[in-house]
Amino acid sequence: MRFTDTLERLRGGLIVSCQAYPGEAMRDPRTMAQVAAAAVVGGAAGIRVQGIEDIRATAHLPVPVVGLWKDGDAEVFITPTLVHAKAVADAGADIVALDGTRRRRPDGLTLAETITGLRAHTDALIMADCGSLDDAIAAEAAGADLLGTTLSGYTDERPKSTGPDVELIELAAARCSRPIVAEGRIHTPVQAAAAISAGAFAVCVGTAITHPSTITAWFAEAVGGARS
């Protein structure tokens, strides 16, 4: 029941990623919770937050919470181990997001072994953050409930585009039966709509909505260019 209900609440909707980098002024669970609450008022169908305290601070919101834990300096750092994944679920995440690439995980487990271990621990859904079509196919076979295009352009398998990787969305939607969450470099409403048209089940947007330093820089650069 939880699986069906959560997915239906996200179908065709916008997930807003509320994250701040370490050392930034907004890097506080209370602030992220307020940003998330504001996103819900604006129509977000779900939110995505990073860190155990941020997940706990947003677990009360009336929309599905996608939780993750960024840790370590290895290639795989998005909820990199089974221990991390269990902690994210225990903090209250409705969906546990983890690295869904085919790269070696720090604890030596395969993605399939990680998903199996997490299934035995919780009924939370599992989202695999993928970097390519092969990742998405493998993550689906491993048992992931949702497939994200989050890591497209951040591994060696696909170039980093200036906007969303629409081609990957189309390829994954055509080859995989699990819902595709378009995520990564979606900067405008037009791009978000294009992702849905390309076959995405839902769209996740972060920087363009919740990272004021980057948004300010976009405007400052445009104003500066016009002035010169």
TrEMBL record:
It holds the Pfam family NanE. It comes from the Bacteria. Pathway: Amino-sugar metabolism; N-acetylneuraminate degradation; D-fructose 6-phosphate from N-acetylneuraminate: step 3/5. InterPro entries: Aldolase_TIM, NanE, RibuloseP-bd_barrel. Keywords: Carbohydrate metabolism, Isomerase. One of its GO terms (molecular function) is N-acylglucosamine-6-phosphate 2-epimerase activity. It catalyses: an N-acyl-D-glucosamine 6-phosphate = an N-acyl-D-mannosamine 6-phosphate. Signal peptide: none annotated. Its EC number is 5.1.3.9. SUPFAM superfamilies: Ribulose-phoshate binding barrel. Converts N-acetylmannosamine-6-phosphate (ManNAc-6-P) to N-acetylglucosamine-6-phosphate (GlcNAc-6-P). HAMAP family: ManNAc6P_epimer. Belongs to the NanE family. This is Putative N-acetylmannosamine-6-phosphate 2-epimerase. The lineage of its organism: Bacteria, Bacillati, Actinomycetota, Actinomycetes, Micrococcales.
